[in-house]
Each structure stands twice: as C-alpha cells, then as structure tokens.
From TrEMBL:
It holds the Pfam family DegV. Transmembrane segments: none annotated. This is DegV family protein. Signal peptide: none annotated. Gene3D superfamilies: 3.30.1180.10, 3.40.50.10170. NCBIfam families: DegV. May bind long-chain fatty acids, such as palmitate, and may play a role in lipid transport or fatty acid metabolism. SUPFAM superfamilies: DAK1/DegV-like. It comes from Vallitalea pronyensis. GO terms for molecular function: lipid binding. It comes from the Bacteria. The keyword Transcription does not apply. Keywords: Lipid-binding.
C-alpha cells in the first residue's frame, strides 16, 4: 500500500501563508494568553496586535490545546493521508513536542512521527518547508533525511532590540535588562545545536549590531550557494536594508522575507531582526 504523507508544524515556524497553502501544511496553533482572554496564534491574533498592546500588558504563551491537534489529525485521515510527520519547535523552550508525541502515540488511523526541530522561527520553518516539498514522494526516510540535514547545518543570527519581554520571561534579570536598554546594548543570539538560544555577542547600537550580523553571514557563506530567510519583528525597513547589505554574499538560491509569529513576538519584543541560512549541496537543491 502506497503512503500518503503529510507534514504538520506549529504556528511558530513562520512560513508565509502562500507556502502553507501550496504544500497543504497543517499548523497547530500555540496560544497567546492575556489576563482576561486568550488567542490562537495566527488564527485569532496577529503579531501587529501583540505589538500594539505590549505597553499595556506583556502576555504569556502556552501549548496548543489537545483538541486542536486531534482535529488536525482527523482532517488528515478524512483527506486520505496514511502518515504525518509532525515537526515542532525546540523542546527546550516549549512542551509542544511532548504534547504531539503523547497524542500521536494514542491516535489510531494515522501513523504519527514527531520530530523535535531543536529550533524556532525560520530555522525550524526551513525544515518544515523542505519536508513538505518531499512529502509527495511517499518516502518517509527521504523526508526525514532532508529535515535532519537542515537541522544539522542551518546557521542563524538574531538581534534583540529591547529587553522588556526578556525581563518578563525571566531570561534576563530586571536590572541587567533595564541597564542594557538605557545603554542601547543589543543582544545578538544564535540557535544552539541542542535547541537553546546562545549569546553570540553584545554590541552597542542598532547599526553596529546590523553590521556584526552582516559580517558573520559573509564569513559563513561567501562563495557558497544557500537558502536565506531574513526575519523581523515589526522592523520591515531594517529587514530590507539588511538584504541590500548581504545580497552580494555568495549565491542566494532562494529568499524569504518573513515576520515573527505572535507567540515569538511575546518573548522577543519589537525591533528584532535576523537571518537564517543553510548551504545547498548536491541532491538537496530542490525548489518547487
């Protein structure tokens, strides 16, 4: 019996809507929670709405609810799928992987394989995209090989512009965060191989931070062919400026300009900008 394989992700993968629709990717919505209400990421609330109310309240976030995940499984069965590969954001920062694993083991009528991306944002989005591009082959081993290739070689770099949301989450101390804001110190982070955010450096001033990221990308990808995503949180002008500064680095095979999800916005605050990229080699040069 031939397999019909779907790819499922959660709302923090930050792929553009036209990509989600083209490849029939199912998304589990994480939740944005305020004191008196809660919303499903990407369904009931947008990043712009989160930013508009940050001065009033910094919300919290939570996992998808089980009913939403099971509903998506049911939809896949109704559409004739036999298997689904569920890719989640890093289990270090969220319990979504554990939730999907638990529900997948208990579900009947669909073979569920859950993959911890050990990443977030478009770092994870690229894994979802390339997995979905291979889904039509019905070859689960090949799909997983593609996902793991990206997980093992992807590079990322993000600049955190303001510390209010990091202070709220406890990832930065209140005193340190307040002082860094006053001194206009920008935190530059990257994704560690085990799914945790790691500090790359700290620099004073946004322009210097942008130059630091550009120099890092040049060091990583000069003379290489690669896929690139420039990600921003309410900083589209700077995202375009970043592209102008790096478009001559190596050969960009495919480019995405994407926005952070509402859930990611809650933890990073406005003004964040960064890049995600990975080198293309041999059989992994698929665009369709």
């Amino acid at each position: 019996m031939s397999k019909k394989i779907a790819v499922m992700a959660d709302s923090t993968c930050e792929l553009p809507n036209h990509i989600i629709e083209k490849y029939h990717i199912k998304l589990m919505p994480l939740r944005v929670i305020y004191k008196d209400r809660e919303y499903r990421d990407g369904i009931d609330i947008t990043p712009e709405q989160v930013y508009a109310h940050l001065h009033e309240e910094i919300p919290t976030t939570s996992l998808p609810i089980a009913e939403d995940v099971l509903y998506l499984f049911d939809e896949l069965v109704d559409d004739g799928y036999t298997d689904v590969i569920v890719i989640t954001l890093t289990s270090v920062l969220s319990g979504t992987y554990q939730l999907a694993t638990l529900l997948g083991k208990a579900y009947r009528g669909l073979e569920v394989e859950v993959v911890d991306s050990k990443a977030l944002s478009m770092i994870y989005g690229f894994m979802v995209l390339e997995g979905a591009r291979y889904a039509h082959t019905g070859n689960k081993a090949l799909i997983l090989e593609k996902i793991m290739y990206i997980r093992n070689c992807v590079k990322s770099c993000y600049m955190i512009d303001t510390y209010a949301c990091l202070k709220k989450s406890g990832r930065v101390g209140k005193f340190q965060g307040t002082l860094a804001d006053l001194l206009k110190i920008k935190l530059i982070v990257s994704m560690g191989r085990e799914g945790n955010l790691e500090t790359y450096t700290m620099v004073r001033g946004r322009e210097r931070a942008m130059r630091t990221m550009t120099h890092l990308l040049r060091r990583q990808f000069s003379h290489k062919t690669y896929k690139l995503a420039i990600v921003n949180g309410n900083a589209e002008k700077d995202a375009k400026a970043m592209y102008e500064g790096i478009k001559d680095i190596g050969t960009v095979n495919e480019l995405f300009m994407t926005k952070l999800s509402a859930v990611t916005c809650v933890h990073t605050g406005p003004g964040i900008i960064g890049y995600v990229a990975y080198e293309i080699k041999n059989r992994f040069q698929i665009n369709s």
